[in-house]
Specification:
Length: 446
């Protein structure tokens, strides 16, 4: 890999703009095959893309192979994968137990046209694992799971309003970052401020009688890995109970933080929980579940039950991989992974503090995101106020150092990331600080 680019170029807009241009140019020169594949893909896909979050300028890498914690791109560059497919790749790229489970399922036929013997086993395991889930239904993504949990809340309460929070991402059809995305489904959304006790209380006072549910991530995941204050989640639990609305925990990402998800660690039980990502073993997966009296709305034996179809909801590959995945993430493995992430985040933040640079990693356990700011980061607006151009420069410098992470600065550790890989990341970040100190020192406050 090429070394991080040093620059002393100045411009009327300050040194960061030319530094970014140099970094982009170096990236383009080092990844000519990825560029060729991107150009070819653009002929048949808008922007050569079918997953928006992976796109970045000037073009995204084309990944051709993965093994354990490593990735290789079309130009032959090797990376340590610190992204973990945005938390879905918890087990690395070549977990033998999951691979064997998929092969075993395929040996007995792929699309079986009916109920199979695996789905009830996986459902039982999930209900045993997550304290708030009495029964569960499967989907193909976290997006579907969240939309169906909202549907259940509206049907159960007879109300229409859904309270969500700025910075939250509940899937491609329910995304909130400064405003409601134009692709969002047309529910009656009310958008609050994450971790704002007074403001949230005021929203409940205003809309409690029309509120069907509060949909909340215990930690803003895609929105910047911002943990919820315990008092904030406790407030949501109390006010939903008082108002007769439902509390939905979106644990699509945070379910990996403990054997029973974040709710198992916090002791706060929602009425409904949505799941996804790693529980499918790296295959397409989603689920929603909760109290029996809510989930019974989907019981097809009952008159006027809610329909929920989906050809691949119970597909044997995901069901089999999911069983293997839950076997792999034992209570001990979950606890150790979270502890490893906490140690890594603390070490990185100590490095920033000792270096006097305006950087911070926020997160919980194995999930974290870097922010370039001197201010405390507690909500979506704080994430957006941080320096986004410096985050882009960090992304390109990390790629040049063989570190693969999200363009938005997110890291999700897999079980295959050990002490040696964590040390490589710390060294790469230390090198970034050394090479970019002048730019970091010149950042505007906040």
């Amino acid at each position: 890999m090429t070394e991080p680019v040093r620059t002393t170029v100045e411009s009327p807009d300050g040194p960061l703009a030319p530094a970014l241009e140099i970094a982009r140019d170096a990236y383009a020169r080092a990844n000519r095959e990825s560029r060729r594949h991107f150009d070819s893909a653009c002929a048949h896909m808008p922007g050569g893309n079918t997953r928006t979050t992976l796109f970045h300028s000037p073009f995204p890498l084309r990944i051709v192979r993965g093994h354990d914690s490593r990735l290789w791109d079309a130009d032959g560059h090797e990376y340590v994968d610190f992204l973990g497919d945005f938390t879905a790749g918890l087990f690395g790229h070549t977990n033998p137990a999951i691979a064997a489970a998929v092969r075993s399922a395929m040996a007995d036929g792929i699309s079986l046209s009916g109920h199979n013997l695996l789905e009830a086993r996986l459902a039982a395991r999930i209900c045993h694992r997550f304290p708030s889930i009495d029964s569960v239904r499967f989907t193909n993504s976290g997006t579907e799971a969240n939309l169906l949990a909202i549907t259940a809340a509206i049907a159960k309460t007879g109300r229409r309003t859904i309270l969500v929070f700025d910075g939250a991402y509940h899937g491609s059809l329910a995304s909130f970052s400064g405003s409601s995305a134009p692709t969002n489904v047309p529910h009656e959304w009310v958008v609050g401020t994450y971790n704002d006790l007074d403001g949230t209380n005021a929203l409940f006072d205003t809309c409690a009688s029309s509120l069907a549910a509060v949909l909340v991530e215990p930690m803003l995941g895609s929105g910047g890995c911002i943990p919820a204050d315990p008092e904030f989640l406790q407030l949501l639990r109390r006010r939903t109970q008082e108002s007769g609305s439902l509390l939905i925990f979106d644990e699509v990402m945070t379910s990996r933080l403990g054997y029973g998800g974040y709710q198992g660690l916090s002791g706060i039980e929602p009425d409904l929980t949505t799941l996804g990502k790693y529980i499918g073993g790296g295959l397409s997966f989603g689920a929603f579940g909760g109290r029996s009296e809510i989930m019974s709305l989907f019981d097809p034996r009952q008159p006027r039950s809610l329909a929920h179809a989906g050809t691949f909801n119970n597909n044997v590959l995901t069901m089999s991989a999911g069983l293997a995945a839950l076997d792999e993430l034992t209570p001990e493995a979950a606890a150790e992974l979270s502890a490893r992430g906490d140690r890594l985040r603390a070490e990185l933040n100590r490095l920033f503090e000792e270096s006097g640079v305006p950087m911070v990693f926020t997160g919980l356990g194995s999930l974290m995101t870097v922010h370039f700011t001197e201010l405390e980061v507690r909500c979506g607006a704080d994430v957006r106020a941080a320096d986004q151009r410096m985050k882009e420069l960090f992304f390109f410098d990390m790629l040049a150092a063989g570190i693969y992470l999200a363009r938005r600065g997110m890291i999700a550790l897999s079980l295959t990331i050990g002490a040696a890989e964590c040390r490589l990341l710390v060294e790469a970040v230390a090198s970034f600080i050394e090479h970019r100190r002048a730019l970091l020192s010149g950042m505007a406050p906040g």
